[in-house]
Amino acid sequence: MTPAETILRRAGDRGWLIECAGLRPAEVATSIRAQPWASGLREVVPAATTVLVVAETATGMGKLAAGLRTVLDQSGAHRAGPPPGRRIVIPVRYDGPDLPEVAERLGLAPGEVARRHGAREYRVGFFGFAPGFAYLDGVPESLRLPRLSSPRPRVAAGVVAIAGNQTVVYPGGTPGGWHQIGVTTTRLWDVTADPPNRLAIGDRVVFEAVTP
Amino acid sequence: MTVTSAAPGRRVLPRHRPPGPGAGPEPAVLTVVEAGAATSVQDLGRPGMAHLGVPASGPADRRSFRLANRLAGNPENTPALEVTLGGLAITLSSTRHVAVTGAPAPLAVDGVPVDGAPRLRLRAGSVLTIGRPWAGCRSYLAVSGGIEADRVLGSASRDSLTGLGTAPVRTGAEYGLGPVRPVPAIPLELAFSVVPSGGPVTVRFRWGPRHELFDAADRHRLTTTPWQISAQCDRVGARLTGPPLAIGSVDLPSEGTVRGAIQVPPSGEPIVFLADHPVTGGYPVIGVVTDADIDLVGQTLPGDGLRLAPVH
Predict the structure, then answer these.
(1) Could you read off the pLDDT of B22-40 as tens digits, one per residue?
(2) Neighbours of B191 (CB within 10 A)
(3) ipTM of this complex
(4) In terms of CB atoms within 10 Å, which end of chain A has fewer, N or C?
(5) Per-residue pLDDT tens for A98-139?
(6) How near does any CA of chain B get to the CA of A151, in Å?
């Protein structure tokens, strides 16, 4: 494992970027938020391999670094622990506009694409790109495709799409370059709700096919 | 793109119900006579939600914004107007103190120029206009009592990247005003905004988090190039033009980004992230402009010179 000194990278006056070095960023972030000193943090942002930590003030950045290193050491000890997160089932109608082309490119029947997509348990990796856009990791190798060459300007809420290793339920109103294979009536993002997110990082997601 | 339910156009959001006969004064209203090219409602934004993909947003020049509210007697997080390149005219339905800070711009009341005092008492029915700034680009208008606006995820701020928050300010729009507040006895000559004018502005930055991906020549070039703000500058970020860095394409998984981040896309021309920056990015960040200096970048215009000075 990388020496602890090199795991933290300075990100401005008030920030540290943590290289997770094999630890799950979602779990590192959860551990950081559980610390008694976490009330002095403005942001804790897990991403693919890193966690960004931004403090409310620029004072005590050295002390913050020491606290973060302690969390990382403890996270290492708990690496083999059970995965956290809830299990959330999302009903999907597999009739997206891109399903026929996706099936053809993969050499599968459309129904088989749906079956393979629905047979997996995905994990909420991180949010990014737009409010409520949760990257769900775990698309099977046999369904992996690069993004569309030209993104659609606006994708409605509830559209289920795939690209690479990831799948998503669009929060609505954003552009989108992923392959749209289905739609769900479940809303995972609602700015009027508190909290606005139904999914949290680390949650496990299962898609369940429903007939139109 | 928009993900908010806030409706554009005319909107009055009175805190009080319309009074019945003899129930007291009419609710105070700010009416937008001319909206200007890019005027938005801002408060101090939505910090703490980046992990849900929500940008922090808020004013591009937080220092001037806070000053406007302080002068108007308001708490710092009170909604006020961010006026880009002037062009705003407003009128109030009741007499109030208003404060204008940030980019210094010609002010007039009913067409008569007023001197450069940052605070004035605007009579009911008079029209205050903010012209094109002499320096900088963003002026802030705070009204005693503040603008009443719906909060989306805890903030009234218009986020230009995601469309969250109050709809862009349009001509004819109306906003309710909060209860009038006593203005503080600040010596007004001390209450000025710091906005760059003439010559290149120098801003300090801290190396990292990805400066080690850049070779010595690129790092040297970043600090010695007289960069220019390109035409591609908005509330999301300011692109810099100059001899490009040579780093090219770097395969980096998306990671969290901060305001002030100096991101270097494959073109080699850096982008400095401002208020509405995306919460994650996949291009390497060579350094981060200091908190103290990032407001200056929020006041720059296309063609302005910019030098980046490292702090250690």
Answers:
(1) 445 668 999 999 999 999 9
(2) 17
(3) 0.89
(4) C
(5) 999 999 999 999 999 999 999 999 999 899 889 999 999 999
(6) 13
Nearest to B47 among A43, A132, A191 (CB): A43
Residues of A with CB under 8 A from a CB of B: 9-15, 17, 29, 42-52, 54, 58, 126-134, 153-154, 171-175, 191-192, 195-197, 201
> Nearest CA to A26 among A190, A199, A200?
A200
Compare all CA atoms of chain A with the CA of B155 and give the residue at the minimum distance. A191
Cβ-Cβ contacts under 8 Å, B290 against chain A: 12-13
Burial of B12 (0-12, 13-18, 19+ CB in 10 A): middle
Q: Which helix (H) or strand (E) holds B64?
A: helix B62-71
Three-state SS string across B95-133, please?
Answer: CEEEEEEECCCCEEECCEEECCCCEEEECCCCEEEECCC
Peptide bond into A82 cis (omega under 30): no
Are A32 and A71 a contacting pair, CB within 8 Å? yes
CA distance to partner chain A, nearest, from residue B117 (Å): 32
Mutate to test the interface with A, among B280, B285, B294, B297 (most CBs of A within 10 A): B280
Please state whether beta strands B107-109 and B112-114 pair in parallel, antiparallel, or not at all (unpaired): antiparallel
Q: Is the dihedral of CA A89, A90, A95, A98 positive or negative?
A: negative
Residues of B with CB under 8 A from a CB of A: 1-5, 47-54, 56, 152-153, 162-164, 206-210, 253-261, 278-280, 285, 288-292
The residues, any chain, with a CB within 8 Å of residue B112's CB and separated by 6 or more, are none
Kindly report the pTM of this predicted structure: 0.89
